[in-house]
Amino acid sequence: MASILHPSSFHSSSSSTTTKPPVPPPLSRPQATLSPPSKTLLAKLTTTLTATALATTILTTTSPSLADSPTTYSIYYGTAASAANYGGYGGNSDKKASAEYIYDVPDGWKERLVSKVEKGTNGTDSEFYNPKKKAEKEYLTFLAGFRQLAPKDVILNNLALSDVNLQDLIANADGVTSEERKDENGQLYYDYEIDGVSGHSLISVTCAKNKLYAHFVNAPAPEWKRDEDTLRHIHQSFKTVG
User: Fold this and answer.
1) CB-based burial of residue 177 (10 Å sphere; 0-12 exposed, 13-18 middle, 19+ buried)?
2) What are the residues facing 144 on neighbouring strands?
3) Regarding predicted confidence, which is higher, 121 or 59?
4) Of 97, 179, 186, 216, which is least surrounded by CB within 10 A?
5) Locations of Low complexity compositional bias (predicted)?
6) Nearest-angstrom CA–CA distance, 229 and 237
7) Helix (H, G, I), strand (E, B) or coil at 90
8) What is the layout of strands, in order, in the sheet containing 199-208?
9) Residues 131, 105: contact at Cβ < 8 Å?
10) What is the distance between the alpha carbons of residues 209 and 207, in angstroms, rounded to a whole number?
């Protein structure tokens, strides 16, 4: 005899086979939270970046060479004394008080002592030279008995008569220029520039106290190219005083 199923039993059986377990909601990724950097951290970063930038600047900047450093000078007081009074004998030994001319001497240059014989024969009164290259020098000669300057060309030729090196420099020069100038007191100077293959010369000539003064600045070609500013400075610094 067939059994009759109770409706509740059928419903219970059907429900148990079709009901699905609840699906959990999808997991969401937690949001990362960024906290602002502390003042200490910011200070460290700033210091590091500043130091890095400074180091980069130092490494990429060319250091100045010794040649770029400014030249300093001392003033030389020349007396243009006769050979008999050389070194103060028979006259005032205080050069500054009895100076007849002055010019600048670069620091580091050495003085070459002029003998009485040399002073008496060619009129050389003073001389300084660069110890690194002795041919780079300045010196002054004087001659008594000149009241005024002769024409510029005549003066230069007369100076060359007593200076063999000057003769050679003029003979082999690429160019010789001359000009006149007056100082603040109206005193006349002749300025000469001789540009040669082997060397360069700047000469300044003037008359005062019945004497002719000639100031020379000479340098070999390599030294002229290197020290032109210094050499022009000492050339322009010459003047008579008193």
Assistant:
1) exposed
2) 211
3) 121
4) 186
5) 7-20
6) 12
7) coil
8) 110-111, 124-130, 133-144, 211-220, 199-208, 188-196, 173-182
9) no
10) 7
Phi, psi of 156 (to 5 degrees): -65, -40
Contact by Cβ (8 Å): 189, 204: yes
8 Å CB contact between 178 and 190: yes
Which of 181, 233, 213, 191 lies closest to 100, judged by CA?
213
- Residues 74-126: tens digit of each pLDDT: 999 999 987 766 554 444 567 899 999 999 999 999 999 998 888 888 899 99
CB atoms within 10 A of CB 62: 5
Number of CB atoms found within 10 A of residue 208's CB:
20
Tell me how far CA of residue 27 lies from CA of 14, 24, 30, 124, in angstroms: 32, 9, 9, 106
Give the model confidence (pLDDT) of 158-190 as tens digits.
999 888 888 988 998 999 999 999 999 999 999
The CB density around residue 11, as the number of other CB atoms within 10 Å, is 10
Task: Tally the residues of the chain.
Answer: 242
Q: How many CB atoms lie within 10 A of CB 30?
A: 6
Q: Distance (Å, rounded) from C-alpha 222 to C-alpha 199?
A: 8
Q: How far is CA 177 from the centre of its chain?
A: 27
Tokens 């050679």 found at: 168
